[in-house]
Amino acid sequence: MYFVDVIDVPGLGNRGYLAGGAGTAVVIDPPRDPDRVIGAAARRGVRITHVAETHVHNDYVSGGLELARLTGAAYLVPAGARVAYARVPVEDGDRVTLDTGLELRALATPGHTPHHTSYVLADGGTAVAVFTGGSLLIGTVGRPDLVEPRLTGQLARAQHDSARRLAAELPDDTRVLPTHGFGSLCAATPSGGAEGGATTIGQERRTNTALVTDVDTFVAELLAGLDDVPAYYAHMGPANAQGPAPLDLTPPRRADAGEIAARLAAGEWVVDLRNRVAFAQGHVAGALNFESAGQFAVQLAWLLPWGKPVTLLAESAGQLAAAQRELARVGIDRPAAAATGSLPDWLPDGATPRSFPRAGFADLAARADGVVLDVRRDRERAAEHIPGSLHIPLHLLRDRLTELPSDGTPVWVHCAGGARAAIAASILDAAGYPVVAVDDGFDAARAAGLTVAAALP
Question: What is the maximal distance between C-alpha atoms in the chain?
Answer without folding.
Answer: 73
